[in-house]
């Protein structure tokens, strides 16, 4: 299996991507969504999250991904609305005392699923700053369709976002960082919307 991932500034775009992935035949149990600012909605992938340590109690065992979203805390990200295999894996890593830096939590879950570690840091930081992460584990013959679905839903350009973070001295995702306040999240979204890379 391969992992196809997208980061979205707009939660509605992320929800569109999840629904389109399901409509394209990607199993709900192979789709995840993690958001600092999500809302409950209808879909199916939350069923896969119920297998993770402690996640079943949070997202429930029935219903869909967006219908089954639950609240939990991820170290370094803070309180999130999430469901799916990625959050089940991240929560299991935390529950198993594996968390710490790139070895555990959300970074470790992504890298173990095949996401480049440098990209995983940007994805995790993006969620910390108010973005929504959509990730799908797919068979080799589904990679192109999953990538086209995620790309069609207006994801963040990862290299541009990485550059924005680095201009302020960011080195990588730090799970000991303080949570963003609501005001900081609003400012961060505005900054991301208006950001143009330095020449």
TrEMBL record:
Q: Which organism is it from?
A: Phyllobacterium bourgognense
PANTHER family linked: MEMBRANE PROTEIN, MEMBRANE PROTEIN-RELATED
Domain (General stress protein 17M-like): residue spans on this chain:
5-69
User: What is the protein name given in its UniProt record?
Assistant: General stress protein 17M-like domain-containing protein
Which segments of the protein form a coiled coil according to its record?
A: none
């Amino acid at each position: 299996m391969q992992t196809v991932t997208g980061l979205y500034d707009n939660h509605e775009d992320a929800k569109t991507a999840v629904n389109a992935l399901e409509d394209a035949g990607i199993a709900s149990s192979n789709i995840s969504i993690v958001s600092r600012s999500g809302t409950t909605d209808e879909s199916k992938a939350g069923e896969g999250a119920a297998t993770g340590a402690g996640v079943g109690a949070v997202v429930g065992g029935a219903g869909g991904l967006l219908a089954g979203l639950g609240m939990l805390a991820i170290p370094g990200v803070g309180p999130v609305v999430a469901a799916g295999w990625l959050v089940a894996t991240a929560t299991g890593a935390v529950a198993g005392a594996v968390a710490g830096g790139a070895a555990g939590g959300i970074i470790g879950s992504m890298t173990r699923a095949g996401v480049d570690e440098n990209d995983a840091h940007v994805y995790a930081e993006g969620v910390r700053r108010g973005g929504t992460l959509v990730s799908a584990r797919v068979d080799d013959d589904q990679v192109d369709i999953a990538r086209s679905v995620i790309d069609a839903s207006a994801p963040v350009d990862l290299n541009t976002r990485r550059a924005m973070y680095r201009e302020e001295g960011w080195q990588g995702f730090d799970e000991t960082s303080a949570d963003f306040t609501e005001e900081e999240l609003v400012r961060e979204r505005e900054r991301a919307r208006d950001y143009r890379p330095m020449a």
